[in-house]
Amino acid sequence: DQTPTIGSQRDVRLPDVNRWALSIGSHIQATTALGIDVGYTYLFGANNASPINKTQILDTFNYVTVNGSAANHAQLAGIQAVWAFDGVKPA
After folding, report:
1. Where are the domains of the chain?
2. 35-66 pLDDT tens trace
3. Backbone angles phi, psi at 42, to 5 degrees
4. CA atoms in the 13 A half-sphere facing the CB of 85
5. DSSP label at residue 60
6. 81: alpha, beta or left, given left = phi > 0 and alpha = psi -120 to 50?
7. How far is CA 38 from CA 15, 33, 41, 63, 74, in A?
């Protein structure tokens, strides 16, 4: 997923970068009516240290400059139960 944020507009509230996602999941059919789904996703930035170089002008004599970098990643895990009320296995 390519970031729409350009470097001069990047700030510390939203250090957006191009992201990659690695995912894996499985379905286990425990009984005819009950199935279990599990999944895991790891999200990480392609360039995990996106630079932040932003100057915000507050008024004629006051401004704020931020120089730094931000790195981010996320881990998502999920589990769900699938119950077939008619006893037919889900496809």
Report:
1. 7-83
2. 999 999 998 877 656 677 778 788 888 888 87
3. -120, 120
4. 0
5. S
6. beta
7. 30, 17, 11, 49, 17
